[in-house]
Design goal:
Residues 10-37, 38-65, 66-93, 94-121, 122-149, 150-177, 178-205, 206-233, 234-260 form the C2H2-type domain. By secondary structure, the protein is of the alpha+beta class. It is 42% helix and 14% strand. The protein contains nine helices and 18 strands.
């Protein structure tokens, strides 16, 4: 009589099922384990990999073992350090096949690619508006929640974005870091600097589709369009007279103040 040999020599210590290969046994053990078994004992956040748990712990310990020799900036992970170095080297290894634009990180490239595909996988559950990046959805959600997590230490005004707080701080410090090399005028934001530069170059990129008149800013074109649409969104609370421009309502309000 031929003796039957059990090939399933690797048995799971939890459920007792046998497997022929150690690899299959390991996959089975993962079924019994929690999805994110590595928990941070400081904040309770869980991770699927030990390496990610280790990197996370450095945030609490404020440990940054990777130092840039050029600018001396320090980083928690080798990956963050590697990406940072590309600022100094100018390396942009991720190239868009559609427009040939290059990026320093794969995440930047993926977000850019969605501009061509129109993909917006991150949807707001309140108003169903979709976004290409998760960060944009987080910022959008603050419209619904009213959350403004960035607070000014000087006047306690709060903002939805860290960039808006940074710009606001300049109103206290009077910092205007963007200099016009043509006339020496300085600006608080790069956008205001760029708009100002158009007064020197004569560039008017915003064109009216009705009369083809061009404008320096999108807001100027928006106000102009009201000539064609007849829209007058600024209404007087006293006499209910309407105006197409905010300046019009301000001047009109003064006529009521003079009468009183």
């Amino acid at each position: 009589m031929t003796k039957h040999i059990d090939k399933k020599t690797f048995h799971c210590g939890i459920c007792g099922i046998g497997f022929e290969r150690t690899r299959t046994l390991c996959n089975n053990i993962k079924v019994h384990m929690p999805e994110k078994p590595y928990e941070c004992d400081v904040c309770g956040k869980c991770f699927s990999k030990l390496s990610r748990h280790t990197y996370h712990k450095r945030i609490h310990m404020k440990e940054k073992p990777f130092k840039c020799d050029v600018c001396k900036k320090k980083f928690t992970t080798a990956y963050d350090f590697k990406v940072h170095i590309r600022i100094h080297t100018g390396e942009k290894p991720y190239k868009c096949d559609v427009c040939d634009k290059c990026f320093s990180t794969s995440s930047q490239y993926k977000l850019h690619a969605r501009k061509h595909t129109g993909e917006k996988p991150h949807k707001c559950e309140v108003c169903f508006k979709s976004f290409s990046a998760p960060g944009n959805l987080i910022v959008h959600m603050r419209m619904h929640t009213g959350e403004k997590p960035y607070k000014c230490d000087v006047c306690e005004k709060c903002f939805t974005l860290s960039t808006k707080l940074k710009i606001h701080i300049r109103t206290h410090t009077h910092e205007k870091p963007y200099l016009c090399e043509d006339c020496g005028k300085c600006f608080i934001t790069i956008s205001k600097h760029n708009i100002h530069m158009r007064s020197h170059t004569g560039d008017k990129p915003y064109k009216c589709d009705v009369c083809r008149k061009s404008f320096i800013t999108a807001s100027h074109r928006k106000v102009h369009m009201r000539i064609h649409t007849g829209e007058k969104p600024y209404k007087c609370d006293v006499c209910e007279m309407s105006f197409s421009h905010s300046l019009g309502i301000k001047l009109h309000t003064k006529t009521h103040l003079k009468k009183s």
